Amino acid sequence: MPHPASPPFGAASSPPVYGSAGRSFDLADASSSQGRARALSGILPQVGKALTPFPLDETKKIKILLLENVSQIAVEMLKNEGYLVDEKKGSLAEDELIKTLKEGGYQALGIRSKTKVTARVVAEVPTLLSVCCFCIGTNQVDLLAAARAGIAVFNSPFANSRSVAELVIGEVICLSRQLADRSSEMHAGIWNKVSNGCWEIRGKTLGIVGYGHIGAQLSVLAEAMGMTVLYYDVVPIMSLGSAKQLDTLDELLGASDFLSLHVPELPETTNMIGAAELAKMKLGSYLLNNARGKVIDIPALVAALQSGHLAGAAVDVFPSEPAKNGPHFGDDLNGWATALRACPNLILTPHIGGSTEEAQRMIGAEVASALLRYINYGSTVGAVNFPEVNLRPILHEGTVRLCHVHLNQPGVLKIVNSILGEHNVEKQFSDSKGDIAYLLADIVDVDEREIKEIYDAISKTRSNVATRVLF
Q1: What pLDDT does residue 137 have?
Q2: Is the dihedral of CA 417, 423, 429, 432 positive or negative?
Q3: Lower CB density within 10 Å: C or N end of the chain?
Q4: Distance (Å, whole) CA 471 – CA 463
Q5: Which value, in Å, is the radius of gyration of the alpha carbons in the chain?
Q6: Cα distance between residue 444 and residue 6, in whole Å
Q7: What is the pLDDT at residue 101?
Q8: What distance in Å separates the CA atoms of residue 241 and residue 224, rounded to the nearest whole number?
Q9: Nearest CA-CA partner of 107 in 148, 62, 61, 142
Q10: pTM surpassing 0.70?
């Protein structure tokens, strides 16, 4: 469904121009240059003339809604740009999210892992330009629907890697010493000093499924603790330290004393660890999941813990998670919750892998920077559902930047270039990803009438999804 295009260039009160599916977006509502020039050299690698949507209306500014306690670093960065930023501590259900976004007229939405941006949200909120996930995962957003509506989605794939890796090391030690059970007993007034089934982790084998940024950092930390590290990944990856890549998951399952999962949620990773895989793990081994909730078949895990085949487990993510803090992790959310909570030597945490002050500061800065680059410059570097397109900064007056999201169809560039052919195009770059393509073009020596003509012609093409002009 095409995303709303910008209004015609003229007075701020001009009627909106409609895209090919009739969704409108008054870009005058998203215009502000206040604070655009401040601190850009410290925030963004791209430094040049800060760009503003045309026509300029200082009374109407970009509005951003941030949910789920997004880092104050991000809040400050966005406010310093002159944007209007509203914050809400919790997540919002679909109906409430749609109502809030529509009533507020927001152009950007910031979330973490609990808020779901569905195809319905995308369809019913025509003002959205971008959704920012202040976390690693983006499975809470319908990426395809967002792309087809011209909404760029950004995330922070690396900033919390160290925090997650450190949590896993802590879990490995706690499981090997049964610390969670001993602590619970002490809180209940029970003194139970035992050494049976408690081990040092030195000399043990850690198996890592998914040797990406988190897996690689975990590898280094585990070797520093004296562990042997093996890993499995779907592509060949050069190891750090002395870690060794194995050819198959089954081989890793049988060789690991501790198995830690670090894979995205994909159709091929759903229930990748089920009853058959658990049976192939060593008797008395441990399973740790800090990846995605649907990666493990939880009832199969419960059975493996109850039978004693696994000596323990740590689970930080779940197929269904509460939308807010409180006593909400019960059988009404996940039918196996009571059985899981009753398992021995089991560490359960509420999706806190990246929940450290350091990680949240880095995530806040990274995602806010990506949003600023997109709104101010049209850059989609870091977008997960758009082609990554960027142009060097505009360094002088008299240049406008065309930002054109369009369907990836034959002949589109021919049409666009025929429109731009009468003008001096200083630089231009286009790329595609799936059904969507994105073009940036810098045009020099054009006046207001010519800008309007360019915009009108391009936004009315059949392939148009969303068009902005920045100056």
Answers
A1: 87
A2: negative
A3: N
A4: 24
A5: 25
A6: 20
A7: 97
A8: 10
A9: 62
A10: yes
Q: How far apart are CA 454 and CA 9, in angstroms?
A: 10
Query: Which residues are within 8 A (CB) of 133 and not within 5 positions of it... i.e. 6 or more apart?
Result: 111, 112, 113, 140, 141, 153, 154, 155, 156, 367
What lies within 8 Å, CB to CB, of 7 at 6+ separation is 14, 15, 16, 17, 24, 25, 26, 27, 28
Q: What is the pLDDT of residues 111-120, one digit of tens each?
A: 998 999 999 9
Question: Residue 23: which pLDDT band, with cuts at 50, 70 and 90?
Answer: very low
Residue type for 164, please? V
Active site residue ranges = 292, 321, 351
Rounded distance between C-alpha atoms, residue 410 and residue 460, angstroms: 17
Phi and psi torsions of 305, nearest 5°: -75, -45
Tell me how crowded residue 316 is: count the other CB atoms within 10 A of its CB.
22
Mean pLDDT taken over the chain: 88
| Structure token pair of residue 180 | 């969670």
pLDDT tens digits along 131-158: 999 998 899 999 999 999 999 999 999 8
Q: Residue 231 carries which side chain, given as an amino acid letter?
A: Y
Instruction: Show the tokens assigned to 201.
Output: 């982790």
Residues near 117 by Cβ (< 8 Å), separated by ≥ 6?
A: 97, 109, 111, 131, 140, 141, 142, 146
Buried b (16+ CB within 10 A) or exposed e, 360-383: bebbbbbbbbbbbbbbbbbbbbbb
